[in-house]
Design a protein that fits this description.
- By secondary structure, the protein is an alpha/beta fold.
- The protein is built from six helices and five strands.
- It has a five-stranded mixed β-sheet with strand order 3-2-1-4-5.
- The protein is globular.
- The protein starts with 12 loop residues before the first strand and ends in a 15-residue tail after the last helix.
Length: 194
C-alpha cells in the first residue's frame, strides 16, 4: 500500500511524529516536515518498518527535497517533570516552531495533541504508515534520536545505548541494576523490572 501524499492537497501541510516515547533513557525527539506537492519515494514508510541503513538514506532525501523540516526534543528531566505524553507533544511544538515555512495544517501521528497557536491540526492513528509527511517526520525523529544516543553512549558505554538506544532491553535493565541510573535516565519510568 502506498502512502497518501496529503490529507488536504490545497493546504501547506506539515507531518509531525516523535521517537523514543517508550525508552528508559534519553530525550524524546520529534520532527516536522513539509514535503513538496510532487514528492514521491517508493521506500518512504513508518521508520519502524525500515532498516537503519535505509532510514539514513531516506533522511538525506528528505532533507534535500523537503520545503522545510525541523527537529525538536524534550530532555529526560523535562519528561520527568511534565510526563512523557506532554513532553512528546511539546517536542512536536518545538519542531513546528522551528520550521522555515509556516504550515496551514499539522498532521500528527497518534491520537493526542495540544492545539498549536493559529494552526489547525488533525491526529491520525498510525499516521506514519498512511501519509508521506508523517513518515518523513518519523524518519527524522528516529535518526536524530539515534545519533544523540550514539553520542551519549561514548560517555556511558556500559548501558549499550549504541545497541538498545535507551529502550528497556534486558541488558539495559541489567546495567541499571549494576551501575545505577545516570542523568539521562527518566526517573519517572520504572527503570528496573522488579
Amino acid at each position: 500500500m502506498s502512502l497518501a501524499p496529503f490529507l488536504h492537497p490545497d493546504l501547506i501541510e506539515a507531518g509531525c511524529d516523535e521517537a523514543g516515547r517508550g525508552c528508559l533513557s534519553g530525550p524524546v525527539f520529534a520532527a516536522a516536515v513539509i514535503l513538496p506537492k510532487d514528492f514521491v519515494h517508493s521506500q518512504l514508510n513508518d521508520s519502524k518498518k525500515i532498516n537503519e541503513k535505509t532510514r539514513y538514506l531516506l533522511r538525506e532525501v528528505i532533507e534535500r527535497e523537503a520545503l522545510a523540516y525541523a527537529v525538536g526534543f524534550c530532555t529526560a528531566q523535562e519528561i520527568d517533570k511534565i510526563n512523557i505524553l506532554h513532553a512528546s507533544i511539546e517536542a512536536m511544538h518545538r519542531a513546528v516552531k522551528k520550521l522555515k515555512v509556516r504550515p496551514e495544517m499539522i498532521l500528527v501521528d497518534g491520537n493526542r495533541f495540544n492545539p498549536f497557536p493559529d494552526i489547525d491540526h488533525e491526529c491520525i492513528v498510525k499516521g506514519d504508515s498512511k501519509f508521506l509527511s508523517i513518515a518523513a517526520a518519523s524518519i527524522l525523529a528516529k535518526t536524530y534520536r539515534d545519533d544523540f544516543m550514539q553520542k551519549i553512549h561514548l560517555q556511558y558505554p556500559h548501558y549499550a545505548w549504541n545497541q538498545n538506544k535507551g529502550y528497556p532491553t534486558l541488558a539495559h535493565r541489567k546495567a541499571i541494576e549494576v551501575y545505577g541510573s545516570c542523568e539521562y535516565h527518566r526517573q519517572s519510568f520504572r527503570l528496573l523490572a522488579k
